[in-house]
Write a structure and sequence with these properties.
Four Helix Bundle (Hemerythrin (Met), subunit A); mainly alpha
Length: 142
């Protein structure tokens, strides 16, 4: 999984957006789109909090935010929602794989951040953001 994300990240510098959006469109009901957008905004906020905590030397806080909001323990956020509000039901397998990779990478980051080694934590965080980039560069929600 991690190798696939790293391989995709290696080709990212060569990708550009043309006037025509080449990302794969993912069709899902409005309720599922709203849930997914809310989750992506939560991830964006979490990434900001993580970077802010790392910059201040608060590694344990960065780890806690990552695990709680993005890590393996955050998986299944939509499991009790009605079927039309579960984004995962509408994702292709490859998109699901990136999402699972994101969750695993966030948990890996949390374990690394708890060591207090900023450089290693940042390296692990790059894998998390790489999953974000891989998904957002490959897919778009309609």
């Amino acid at each position: 999984m991690r190798r696939a994300l790293l391989a995709f990240a290696a080709v990212l510098p060569g990708l550009t957006f043309a006037a025509d959006d080449a990302r794969q469109p993912i069709v899902m009901p409005q309720e599922a789109r709203a849930e997914m957008r809310a989750e992506m905004l939560d991830f964006q906020t979490a990434l900001h909090q993580i970077i802010e905590a790392l910059a201040a030397g608060r590694h344990a806080e960065a780890a806690e935010v990552a695990e709680r909001t993005m890590g393996i323990s955050a998986m299944g956020r939509h499991r009790n929602a009605p079927a039309n509000a579960r984004p995962g039901m509408f994702m292709p397998n490859e998109m699901h794989a990136i999402a699972r990779g994101l969750h695993a990478s966030a948990s890996d980051f949390a374990r690394t951040a708890r060591t207090g080694e900023t450089k290693k934590a940042l390296e692990a965080l790059a894998t998390v953001t790489g999953a974000c980039v891989a998904c957002h560069r490959s897919y778009r929600i309609q």
